Amino acid sequence: MNIWNEYILATSMDEAGQSLQKAKGSTKFVAGGTDLLLEIQQNRHSPVETLVDVSQIPELRKMEIRGEYFFLGAGVPVSQIATSELVKTHASAVATATGLIGGPQVRNSATLGGNVAHALPAADGMIALVAMDAIAVIYCQGNLFEKPILELFRGAGVTALGVADVLVGFKIRLIQKNEASAFDRVMRPQGVALPILNTAVWLRRDENTIADIRIVFGPSGPVPSRALMVESTLRGNVLDAKALSAAKAAIHDTVKFRTSKMRATAEYRYQLAEVLLESVLNTAWNCAEERKND
Q1: Residue 120, domain member (yes or no)
Q2: Residue 69: which H helix or E strand, with range?
Q3: Are the beta carbons of 82 and 91 closer than 8 angstroms?
Q4: CB-based contact 159:150 (threshold 8 Å)
Q5: Residues 6+ positions from 267 with CB-CB distance below 8 Å
Q6: Chain centroid offset of residue 224 CA
Q7: End-to-end Cα distance, the chain
Q8: Can you tell me the distance from the alpha carbon of 27 to that of 288, in angstroms, rounded to the nearest whole number?
Q9: Is-contact 50 44, C-beta < 8 A?
Q10: What is the pLDDT of residue 192?
């Protein structure tokens, strides 16, 4: 079986768009290809007539500060994201999450853009980006536009990206002295690439109080979402045993986990969610304290 019949290496966003228009039959953009090509090989995705490789488009390979944000190109291999001091400083959750994707060979090929575009509900990089309230930058027919990351998803494996849309990258607000983020997950020992459960958090401290917070569990539904009620139990409170107890109770009351035959029962995921939430909260809380004097 041929995975594709024509392969086009685009060197600009205009060229990628033009290649798409000229291509015959089914066409897909590809960067690392670690998800898409495997799914085609395993008959979980129909064969593609034309692949348009966007991995060498310069704008998709950038990591740089732009005003109040830093830009993270969708085509940057996740191995580079995981070791970038810029990402570690301004989005520690993203650096940690990308450092856990696959093994070294996969990380050298896989991209954060592919992680998001594939839209699996437990994708590590995607969950971390949601906690960072990232903004997606998209190119279509000569124009750039922006979309909050949570508006990209329509269902498991389904995004709002059009056929001609190129996911260029992500904007993440520069971290402030009293802010921090963290990510953690639990995996099966072998055999399944996706985590049993992962958790990402971003928070801002006001002395000993959580002034603001974002929490994301994956998977907790067909599309990623913030655990808003869990956040509300912590916002405005000191991070102590009482606040943690209320947050854990809110997980059981408001977050929807399901049983997966391949990974874990819903009951086990609720137990893990408590442990992971406490882990990432304490990490981010302590990092925010350390940043006060930076």
Answers
A1: yes
A2: strand 69-73
A3: no
A4: no
A5: 259
A6: 9
A7: 56
A8: 45
A9: no
A10: 56
What integer pLDDT is reported at residue 45 of this predicted model?
64
Which DSSP symbol is given to 292? T
- Is 1 within the bounds of a domain? no
Mean pLDDT of the 85-100 span: 97
User: Within this chain, do residues 214 and 272 fall inside the same structural domain, yes or no?
Assistant: yes
Tokens of 222: 């067909």
Helix or strand run (H / E) with residue 43: none
Tell me the C-alpha distance between 277 and 282, whole Å. Answer: 8
Enclosing domain of residue 267? 179-291
**How many Å apart are CA 248 and CA 239, to the nearest integer?**
13
| 112, two tokens | 């954060």
Distance set, CA 253 to CA 199, 227, 250, 270, 287 (Å): 17, 11, 5, 10, 29
Mean pLDDT value across residues 241-270: 95
Determine the residue type at 83: T
pLDDT tens digits for range 145-204: 999 999 999 999 899 998 889 999 999 999 999 999 999 999 976 655 789 999 999 999
List the CATH number of the domain containing 125. Answer: 3.30.465.10
What span, in angstroms and rounded, lies between the C-alpha atoms of 41 and 125? 24
